[in-house]
Design brief:
heterodimer; A: 6 helices; globular; B: three-stranded antiparallel β-sheet; elongated
């Protein structure tokens, strides 16, 4: 691992943790969260490498494990990994950023719901899955819009999004 | 490093997302909302108590679910006080339809509403 990568991932991890701290001030019903740290994951997927994205998600989950305990850590790693796998696949298939983020949000909540059902050894949470998926989709769409604003300010992501005027047929 | 470009949004995406949303909403509404008769309180997946929802009860405790306070009002059960700081179970509000659940992961507590004739784990 190069020193540059180490420094970059350290900053990104700190930023992801700061985002999840900030979003805890946003009041949403039933423990839902905006998932702003997925902005970091999207940045990693689109401008860094797949390996680095995996590394960041894993580190973020370790951080949650240390700060908020075993249950939160397990939920974080299951949701994060499933969402990351889905988003990498969609990005590889050249899907649009908005769709990738929305599906990523849904997969995140799906993974968390599965992990929670394993922890509880009960299928009672199936009832909430549709609502969780909808919430994940909404959060994913919101994050995609924030991501679009962000990339126009970052120095190395200018060419990442195809502008509407020069949209290629695909 | 080779850099690809991505479009932000395509028209087909809207169709995919709307289809997924409609699917979720359908899944959400399809379960028949019949009034439950009992609340079953589980801790670590073992039954602590089965309580009728027909009679109102003010803040009460259940043996085995230490630190939690429950309330039954108008055929619905709610958690009014919990020992952990997340308090997600409290924010879940009152539930009264068969199959609905309140869940506290840190304490492995689950409150599930069941009707008379359906076994709790058969309700999905």
């Amino acid at each position: 691992m190069s020193a540059k990568m180490l420094a970059r991932d350290g900053i990104l991890l700190a930023l992801a943790s700061a985002f999840s701290f900030l979003e805890s001030f946003v009041p949403l019903p039933a423990g839902m969260r905006l998932g702003l740290s997925s902005l970091i994951v999207m940045y990693a997927i689109y401008t860094l490498s797949t390996a680095e994205a995996f590394f960041l998600v894993l580190l973020k989950s370790c951080f949650v494990l240390l700060m908020r305990g075993m249950t939160a850590g397990l939920l974080s790693v299951s949701g994060g990994m499933l969402s990351l796998l889905g988003m990498i696949l969609l990005a590889y298939l050249n899907s649009s950023v908005l769709l990738t983020s929305a599906i990523g949000g849904m997969l995140h909540n799906f993974g968390q719901c599965l992990a929670a059902m394993c922890l509880l050894r009960s299928n009672a949470l199936w009832m909430y899955l549709p609502l969780l998926l909808l919430a994940g989709m909404a959060a994913g769409i919101l994050n995609a819009c924030i991501f679009r604003l962000l990339v126009s300010y970052l120095p190395d992501t200018k060419e990442l999004l195809i502008s509407n005027s020069s949209e290629r047929m695909s | 490093m080779m850099r690809r470009s991505y479009s932000f949004f395509r028209k087909a995406d809207a169709m995919i997302l709307v289809a997924l949303a409609v699917f979720c909403i359908a899944l959400w509404w399809i379960p028949i909302r019949n009034q439950g008769a009992y609340a079953v309180i589980y801790v670590e997946n073992t039954v602590c108590a089965e309580i009728s929802l027909r009679t109102d009860r003010d803040d009460f405790v259940v043996e085995g679910a230490d630190g939690f306070l429950f309330r039954i009002q108008d055929g619905k059960i709610a958690v009014v006080s919990a020992p952990c700081q997340n308090e997600i179970c409290i924010h879940s509000g009152a539930i009264g339809s068969a199959g609905q659940s309140i869940v506290c992961l840190p304490y492995r507590l689950r409150v599930t509403v069941v009707s008379n004739d359906i076994m709790p784990d058969a309700v999905i």
